[in-house]
Amino acid sequence: MQLPVLYFISILLAGGFLVSNPKVEKRVDDCKEAFEFIYGEFEVNNQVEICFDSAGIPERYKSSVNMPVCDDTLCANVVLKIYWDLAGNYQSFDTLTGFPLTKFDHKKFSSDDYTKLDQILKNRNSMLRILKMTDLLDKSVKVQSKKVDAVTGATPVTIRKSIVEGAVYSSYTLWHFVNGSIKNQISNFTLDNYSEEVSRRMLLSDNYETQLFALKYFSEVDYEIQSELIFQVITQSVPLVKANTIIKMPLPFEESFKNYKLLSLFPELDNYSKSIFINRVLTERNVAEEFLPLILNHPDAFSKKQLDQINSAFTKFEISKKKN
Amino acid sequence: MKRLNIFLICFFISSLIAAQNSILIEAESFKNKGGWVVDPQFVEQMGSPYLLAHGLGIPVENAVTDIKIENSGLYHVWARTKNWVPGNWEAPGRFLISVDGEKLENELGKNEGWNWEYAGKVNLKKGKNELALHDVTGFEGRCDAIYLSTINEQQLPENLKELKQWRAEKKGETILPEKILKYDFVVVGGGIAGCAASIAAAEHGLKVALIHDRPVLGGNASSEIRVHTLGIHGNFERILKMIDTEHYPNGSAEAFKDEEKRMKNMRKYENIDLFLNYRAYATHAENNSINSVDAKHTSSGERIRFEAPYFADCTGDGWIGYWAGAEYSYGREAASEYGETWEEHGVLWSPEIADNFVMGSSVLWGTENAGKPVDFPEVPWAMDVVGDHSSRKGEWFWEYSSNDLNQIDDAETIRDHMFCAIYGSFYNYKNQIPEDIHPDQERINKRNNWPEQLKADSIQLKWVSYLVGKRESRRLVGDYIFTFNDAREPKDFKDAVVFEKRAVDVHYQMNLVDENNPDFLSEAMFYNTKTYNIPYRSFYSKNINNLFMAGRNFSCSHIGLGGPRVMNTTGQMGAAVGIAASVCKKHQVNPRDIYTTYLDEYLQLIENQK
């Protein structure tokens, strides 16, 4: 790409002439420069900004990218504004006016293509993680371009779900960019600017990885002081987060009403979280002594196998089966 | 004292009468099994192989056998069975017993957990009587044994230990198996690892016994489970080509073709004796060495003792090592134990504290177009498991694991959960309702003419496995424990014998991160690697001197298993073990001595056999 064009694009980016992806909410961010990120493969420099909500609390990160994604002449540069959350997990992207994403032979992305790309970029388990660029095209099947005198390979069937058809390199490059080392740089920047408000925002995120990140930096004292927040996390998170919260929380709480409250959540909990909790009851005497009598108030919350384990804990720790 | 004597005499007489007027019939020994299949997967948990009415919703043909009665009279009849999905619905696996064509009054398979259920009473004539099992539902009814007795007030044994002893008494079993056979090398488990171990050992001159509890070889790659073999062939391409599979879709009937090849090739070896349908049930070890393994025929009950200087545990579940007292591990280690953290996936990859949430088991299945509308019955007992999930076929990601369930001890629960998942999802597929259906049309139950429904109307179940395809269970501990780090930063082991370049691939249950998913679907996480190698020291037991292991029960961590658990790789392990056994025999030494003293000779043999 020629320098004047890059210059023009950078002006567009700076001016915020954006067109929203249909999936993305249109809004004006209060952002400031965070750090510079160099995407090694294309030696593209990207300024990453941190954005704040109306209360001035960090909310997300954004970066404008303009990068080549092809090894041939059959597709245009990708020009996008990309957003990550505070833990560096990809959130969404916007296109810029006049710079739609394109596929093979410069065909514009359809609305479905944008939606699919967004889903692909959100999939942290994508096959793209383990594929090499050379795996992306089946060179034995040639596809002739109608616009330029060139041929390229077909997309192997096995990876079709992981890419936008006709935009294999864009899918691949963007996935590795948004899920690559930039994630760590963002999370490190967040840690450097960590606060109770940031921690709270991350714990109540709808991204389980972001929640787990925040849990990692939640101190033992925090659990006691912010027990209501933790109960909220347990109530509204996916099982992986619930279970890991139960693994990490110092138990029992010093104030007994908190122990009651915790156990009152159990009827609605998933099996994994219950199982993790029972494991603590079985292996930690002080947890058993506090919670075993309380468990008797919630017998329907546990499976038959779990109740058998609970009964064995009564015996193991010689605790009387008297209801509290 | 006098009263005690009278009591003992009475007890003796009553025992004698009871013995003369009672008969225990093992269901798996029925002469004609009709459409029932022998299921020996859960012997260690419930006590015996049993007959399973695996009819995919259509009642199977009767199983029939003759019984010989010494004294005619009125007999009470019980069956050991279970309701495999207890709940507020009619038990799905119901069946009846008939004697000489007369059906007994009670349907069976209705109580929770394995138990003796009373079928009714019947007059039996002296001599030959015909006993039959009548499946009522086609949905996995199961019968372990039938007991007939002239006495009604009996408390039949439910406790496994008592049951085992009672069974042995009723059948007049002696402690010593009927046959004792001697071999150079006994391989237990006829999956790809066991087959490769047998071939390699046989090619190097050993007389080999291969004991396998199914009628066909291949384990997860057999036509009974139908997973294709993955991974590279390493140093053993020639051997593995005899027993591997094409890359067919998992669950495909193409597995039969590869199985035919495998069976044919295995039978070519004159010094491999195949003991198909024999399940090992005990080892005899002293001074940390195994002297023999006992195995029992899964239908006839015939028992054989196999004596040998060397054994290979290729059972997958590590039974031989477990019985012999070998060190083993189970579950997911804490990430810190071997330093197996991978930040990309955090606790999904490796937990902060050790737990039991291992990779799960799969039960594969498939459907076909019948070319005409076919019904599928309602399966209310499956709906709690599936919710509104709908599907017409299974794949590798139909996988079930739970932190509460052990892949060995709870294998029957896991398999049955997958039955619910399959039948429920297929029922939903057959009864899809289009989103735009008019409420009136739904109310009057008018048949929909939308294309998907028309297609679903003609789809029927073609095949559902009843065998649990396990990924992970016990891992026997060797002199070296292979971990994620050995794949992440490949080492140059001087005793490298198995090679792999496949990504480390570890699964988790999808509902952990998205509760909209049912609990029987999984997702894979991949860590890309360079070619890595596994040392020979991971293939023999640390504390049982003459025990090798190959297959998923080799010496590794939970994450270490993630890459080499696929069957071409486990086949490499088997072949490596088979050759090592030949060096052991030549020098009259134990597996560890190959590493310490005969490594060059061993590695040269591996080179020579390519």
What does this structure look like?
The complex is a heterodimer of chains A (324) and B (610). Chain A has helices at residues 3-15, 111-122, 168-178, 182-192, 196-203, 208-216, 220-225, 227-236, 239-248, 256-264, 271-283, 285-295, 304-316, and strands at residues 18-19, 30-39, 44-52, 58-67, 78-84, 90-96, 138-144, 151-154. With 324 residues, chain A is an alpha+beta fold. In chain A, strand 2 (30-39) and strand 3 form a beta hairpin. Chain A starts with a helix and ends in an 8-residue tail after the last helix. The relative contact order of chain A is 0.09. Residues 1-25 of chain A have low confidence and may be disordered. Chain B has three domains: 20-171, Sandwich (Jelly Rolls); 179-334 and 475-608, FAD/NAD(P)-binding domain (3-Layer(bba) Sandwich); 361-434 and 450-464, no CATH class. In chain B, strands 1, 2, 3, 5, 8 and 10 form a six-stranded antiparallel β-sheet that branches. A five-stranded parallel β-sheet of chain B has the order 14-13-12-18-29. The radius of gyration of chain B is 26 Å and the shape is globular. In chain B, helix 4 runs parallel beside helix 16 and helix 16 crosses helix 18 (599-608). In chain B, 50% of the residues are buried. The interface between A and B is medium-sized, with 25 and 27 residues.
Provide a short characterization of the protein structure:
The complex is a heterodimer of chains A (324) and B (610). Chain A folds into two domains: 3-123 and 164-182, no CATH class; 218-316.
